[in-house]
Design a protein that fits this description.
Length: about 325
């Protein structure tokens, strides 16, 4: 069924049914002029993201379910990076008139899936027609007992990442070559696991956050996002190439393609893995990749040679850089 058959109000009613509030703290959700929720005792967090067809996603190799899942996942990752717990999501859509009702139902199924995993309620948003491409704009709120920013790193802190890096960038590289959708990730293979990391990232909360001094999620690449911490904390950093964690899937695939897996890990982006600093002897399951120093930004290779690193990765509005530069 085409969207033109049910109109805007029919679509809102469909979304209201699809995303019924799952939290008792929602006083008023979809269907009113604004959402109303209870907030007691904690600090309030708000994050906002956009995804635009042709810039952030390609529907030739992304299903609507995967798109919905990823869109909420990247917002959840931002809340986790501030030490918070995600709670309420508003999503606004600019939808081409040629899209089908089933497309939007599938999109919201993906949103609902990861929302249920993290206890997030979809409480509203807006819809309108788009002349050309699909546009998604989302706002996610959360709460935290202690806010963790990018500006608290101190000289002598260790630098940690919570998971392996570079898988998403390699997954994107493989999907562009494949040029068709992945509708099932089983039976699992090295390449399918990498593609899933790009299409459906899995943000994860840190269990022990008590002594973390600064934190960010890796969305644009390790080098760029570590630079953000250094800039805002007014410190330097040194990282070790042989300490950067990469998965076996990335190593094997990069070897087959005759590419350097470290380039994907350092510059690829869209990992949505937490990068944080903490006292050097901090007890954590995360990977320690370097230390915060007073000034300078350096990367050390396996032979002990030290070179200055630049904030290379993905950045909007840089005319010399295109999306296809990721991971290459």
């Amino acid at each position: 069924m085409q969207l033109s058959k049910i109109g805007e109000f029919g679509l809102v009613k469909l979304i209201e049914t699809k995303c019924a509030a799952s939290s008792s703290d929602v006083i008023a959700g979809i269907g009113d002029d604004a959402a109303a929720v209870k907030v007691i005792g904690n600090k309030f967090l708000i994050t906002s993201d956009m995804m635009i067809e042709g810039i952030h996603f390609d529907l030739s190799f992304t299903t609507f379910y995967q798109l919905g899942y990823k869109f909420l996942a990247i917002n959840i990752s931002d809340i986790l990076a501030m030490g918070g717990n995600p709670e309420y999501f508003l999503i606004s859509l600019g939808i081409p008139e040629t899209y089908k009702v089933s497309d939007i139902k599938e999109l919201y199924s993906g949103i609902k899936k990861i929302g249920d995993e993290f206890g997030v309620s979809v409480v509203g948003g807006d819809t309108c027609a788009s002349k050309h491409d699909l546009t998604l704009s989302g706002t996610l709120t959360g709460t935290a007992k202690r806010i963790i920013t990018r500006s608290g790193a101190k000289e002598g802190d260790g630098i940690f990442v919570a998971d392996t890096l570079g898988d998403s960038a390699m997954g994107w590289h493989l999907l562009r070559k494949r040029k068709k959708k992945v509708k099932s990730f089983s039976p699992p293979s090295h390449r399918l696991k990498l593609m899933k990391k790009h299409l459906m990232p899995q943000p994860a909360q840190l269990k022990n956050r008590s002594r973390i001094t600064s934190m960010i999620d890796i969305s644009d690449g390790l080098l760029i996002d570590l630079t953000h911490i250094c800039d805002q904390s007014r410190v330097g950093a040194i990282i070790y190439r042989d300490k950067i964690p990469v998965s076996g899937e990335l190593e094997k695939t990069a070897k087959n393609l005759k590419k350097d897996p470290l380039k994907f890990a350092l510059k690829g982006g869209e990992d949505y893995v937490l990068l944080f600093t903490a006292p050097r002897r901090y007890k954590t399951d995360a990977f320690k990749i370097g230390e915060i120093i007073r000034r300078g930004r350096f990367i050390v290779d396996s032979k002990g040679r030290k070179t200055t690193f630049k904030p290379e990765g993905y950045e909007h509005f840089v005319t010399t850089q295109v999306q296809s530069d990721k991971g290459t």
